[in-house]
Amino acid sequence: MGASGGNHGKKKKHENADRAAKSVPPLLKDGELIRRRYQVDFMIGGGGFGQIFKGIDTIDGQHLAIKVEPSEKDGRRIKVEFMLLSALRGCSHIPIIRASGTIRGCSFIVMTLLGMNLGDLRKQESTHKFTSGTLYRIGQQLTTALRHVHTCGFLHRDMKPSNACIGLPPKENVIYLVDFGMVRQYIDSQGNIRKPRDYAGFRGTMKFASLAVHLRKETGAADDFIGLLYSMIGKAIV
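Given the sequence above, the corresponding structure tokens read:
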């Protein structure tokens, strides 16, 4: 789930929020203040692992995304995501983390609010495809983002079009890698690659997973890039 939704029309956002709210009650309340600073606006997305709300920093006026997950489900996911985003602070093509904590038994992180994901953006194109030049720039930026993640010793493990979003104006030409809930540390604190497991459970999305993932084998940095390649096959984000 990415911290996206900043450039949709407000009406459409509320419609999306209404649909999400019908399936799962909102974990945050519209208008409530978190950490006496971040005000919740409304929910812009929801899924099996959590929800994302649009918010605003009452001090500097910045629009933000607030990602929240019930701690009893898998609070470790959002804690690992916060840890990695903190380590990647300042890296290009990575959302900026602003705060984290717990509220009413839920874990939350506050981060950069982004625009549409690449899968939805492609559907708006008249040909439902990106040009070769656009694909080149997308691939270049996401390669840089994945290298940042790998340099920190982690694998993303869910590279797909919906996990890459454009920035909001004036950064609408910048691509950001999002959703680090499935990351795995593959390099230890000593700089050594962890010993491969005999069996690795499936992690990722069927359509974009590498052969090694489907065979339940241990994966590495190359498998993230294979996911990126599969996302771009046919000169379009599919």
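The longest helix spans residues 132-151. Try to locate this feature in the token string yourself.
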